[in-house]
């Protein structure tokens, strides 16, 4: 994966080292969709087919959108991305400080 990203064979990849990590952010949406199929009488095979189909469709969307990156660079300049990333970081300060103090389950921790 990382070799393909860095070497860009056939124009595929970012041209830089991109370490890919896992994320569980998608699980909520996948589980909700799976429970919806189950509520409608779907079998475990139907649930898995839906999950694989949605993942396949999502991959196709990313492939199509990746071809538009060149045009988006005119709109999304380094100034715009810098401001957006800074605002995301500023909005996460409260979450970080809360977690540093033990989270919401320990209101008197660190006091």
Concise account of the structure shown:
The protein is mainly alpha-helical and 111 residues long.
**Mean of pLDDT:** 85
Distance between termini? 46 Å
- What is the count of structural domains? 2
Main beta sheet strand tally, sense and closure: none
Helix content, binned percent: 55-70%
Proportion of beta-strand residues: under 5%
Word description of this protein:
It is a single chain. The longest helix has 23 residues, at 44-66. Helix content is 61%, strand content 0%. It has helices at 2-7, 27-39, 44-66, 69-72, 78-91, 93-100. It has two domains: 2-75, no CATH class; 76-111. With 111 residues, the protein is mostly helical. The chain crosses the membrane at residues 12-35, 47-65, 77-97.
Give structural attributes.
111 residues; mainly alpha; 2 domains; flat; transmembrane; transport; transmembrane helix
Task: Summarize the SSE layout with pairings.
Blueprint: H1 2-7, H2 27-39, H3 44-66, H4 69-72, H5 78-91, H6 93-100
Helix pairs in contact: 2-3
